C-alpha cells in the first residue's frame, strides 16, 4: 500500500512534537512536511535533538505543508486553524485540528469563551468532533476533524457510562482535574517556570476554563439534555499527565454493580480505555507516553456518591495520539496503528 503523506503545522510545540514522534512509526503514513513560525529554515532535529538521524525535515511555512501533504495536522492557538482548514477542505485533503477552532458547535459559546466568532460558518457545519470512543460512527470518511481538549477527554470518558447507566444524577457533578505543565504549551509563562511550579500545587482559571463548555457539550449530547458541571483545573508539578477526580451524586436506591457493569459494557471492546479492577486506583504514572486512559470507580456509600478517577497522558490520548486515532478511523486503518506502545514502568 502506498503511504499517504502527512504534515504537521506547529510541529515545534509540545503537541506538534508528539505528532511527529508518533507519525514516524506509522505503517501507512509518511511524515512529509513540518512547519514552525519560530524556527523556519532549521531542521526539526535542531529544535528536538531526540530526532537526530531519525527525522531531519526542514521546518517550512504552513503553505508548504498543505501543498505537499494528503493529511494535515494543525497544532495552533485558537483562531489560526480556520483558513488553513478551508484550503485543505476545498482540495479534498484531511485536516485534523488539535486546537480549539472547531470544538464548539454553538457560535455563541465560542464567542463567550474564546472571544471570537465563526468566520467561515459553512465550514463549521462540516467539522466532525470526535472522542473516538464516543463518536466513532461519525468519523468514517471525515475530512475535517475537531480533536477534543485534553481535560475534556479525561472527564468525558470518565463520566459517560455513569450518565447513560441511569444510576447517576446529571446535576451537581464536580470534576477536579490536574494537568502536567506541558498542558500550558511550550511558550514562556511565569506560572510554568521551574521555580514557580516546582514544589507547588494550585488551581487556576476556577470556573472559567475554556474546556468547560466543551465538556458540557459532549455530556449534554450523551444525556440528550443541557448539562452543567463544576470544572476546576490544577497545575501539577510534573511534565505530563492528566488526573481527573470526578464526584457524582447517585440516585436513590442505586445499584453499584449495575453501574460498574455499564462501564464494563461501554469499554469492553475499546483498545485504549481500561477499567481497572475493583479496589485499584488509576494513576498517571501508568499511562505515561501512551494513548491509554485508565478509569477506576469508587463508591462512597455513606454520602451516596460515585467517585471516578480518570487518567491519561495529556500529550498523547489528550492530543496527538487521539488525533492519530481519529485519522486511523477516518481512513479505515487499524485503530491502534502507530499507537500500541506500552507505558513504561518508571
Explain the overall architecture.
With 346 residues, the chain is of the alpha/beta class. The protein folds into two domains: 4-148 and 317-331, NAD(P)-binding Rossmann-like Domain (Rossmann fold); 151-313, Dihydrodipicolinate Reductase, domain 2. Helices cover 31% and strands 21% of the residues. The chain is built from twelve helices and 14 strands. The strands form two sheets. Strands 3-2-1-4-5-7-6 form a seven-stranded parallel β-sheet, with helices on both faces. A seven-stranded mixed β-sheet has the order 9-10-8-11-14-13-12. α8 (150-165) crosses α11. The chain is globular. The two termini are 37 Å apart.
The order of strands across the largest sheet is 3-2-1-4-5-7-6
Radius of gyration: 20 Å
Helical run tally:
12
* CATH first level of the largest domain: Alpha Beta
Our count of domains comes out at 2
In helices, the fraction of residues equals 25-40%
Oligomeric state of the chains present here: single chain
Keywords:
alpha/beta; Rossmann fold; Dihydrodipicolinate Reductase, domain 2; seven-stranded parallel β-sheet; 14 strands
Amino acid at each position: 500500500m502506498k503511504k499517504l503523506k502527512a504534515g504537521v503545522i506547529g510541529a515545534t510545540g509540545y503537541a506538534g512534537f508528539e505528532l511527529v514522534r508518533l507519525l514516524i512509526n506509522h505503517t501507512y503514513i509518511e511524515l512529509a512536511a513540518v512547519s514552525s513560525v519560530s524556527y523556519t529554515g532549521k531542521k526539526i532535529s535542531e529544535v528536538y535533538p531526540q530526532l537526530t538521524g531519525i527525522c531531519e525535515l526542514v521546518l517550512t511555512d504552513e503553505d508548504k505543508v498543505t501543498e505537499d501533504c494528503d493529511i494535515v495536522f494543525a497544532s495552533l492557538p485558537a483562531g489560526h486553524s480556520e483558513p488553513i482548514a478551508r484550503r485543505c477542505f476545498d482540495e479534498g485533503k484531511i485536516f485534523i485540528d488539535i486546537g480549539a477552532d472547531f470544538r464548539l458547535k454553538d457560535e455563541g459559546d465560542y464567542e463567550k469563551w474564546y472571544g471570537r466568532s465563526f468566520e467561515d460558518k459553512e465550514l463549521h457545519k462540516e467539522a466532525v468532533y470526535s472522542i473516538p470512543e464516543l463518536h466513532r460512527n461519525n468519523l468514517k470518511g471525515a475530512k475535517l476533524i475537531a480533536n477534543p481538549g485534553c481535560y475534556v477527554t479525561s472527564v468525558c470518558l470518565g463520566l459517560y457510562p455513569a450518565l447513560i447507566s441511569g444510576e447517576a444524577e446529571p446535576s451537581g457533578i464536580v470534576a477536579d482535574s490536574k494537568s502536567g505543565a506541558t498542558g500550558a504549551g511550550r511558550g514562556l509563562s511565569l506560572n510554568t517556570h521551574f521555580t514557580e511550579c516546582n514544589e507547588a500545587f494550585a488551581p487556576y482559571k476556577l470556573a472559567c476554563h475554556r474546556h468547560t463548555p466543551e465538556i458540557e457539550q459532549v455530556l449534554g449530547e450523551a444525556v440528550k439534555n443541557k448539562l452543567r458541571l463544576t470544572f476546576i483545573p490544577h497545575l501539577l508539578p510534573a511534565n505530563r499527565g492528566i488526573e481527573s477526580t470526578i464526584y457524582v451524586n447517585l440516585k436513590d436506591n442505586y445499584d453499584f454493580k449495575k453501574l460498574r457493569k455499564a462501564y464494563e459494557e461501554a469499554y469492553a471492546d475499546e483498545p485504549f480505555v481500561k477499567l481497572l479492577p475493583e479496589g485499584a486506583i488509576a494513576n498517571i504514572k501508568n499511562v505515561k507516553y501512551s494513548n491509554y486512559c485508565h478509569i477506576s470507580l469508587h463508591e462512597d456509600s455513606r454520602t451516596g456518591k460515585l467517585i471516578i478517577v480518570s487518567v491519561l497522558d495529556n500529550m498523547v490520548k489528550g492530543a496527538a495520539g487521539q488525533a492519530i486515532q481519529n485519522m486511523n478511523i477516518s481512513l479505515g486503518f487499524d485503530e491502534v496503528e502507530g499507537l500500541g506502545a506500552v507505558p513504561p514502568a518508571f
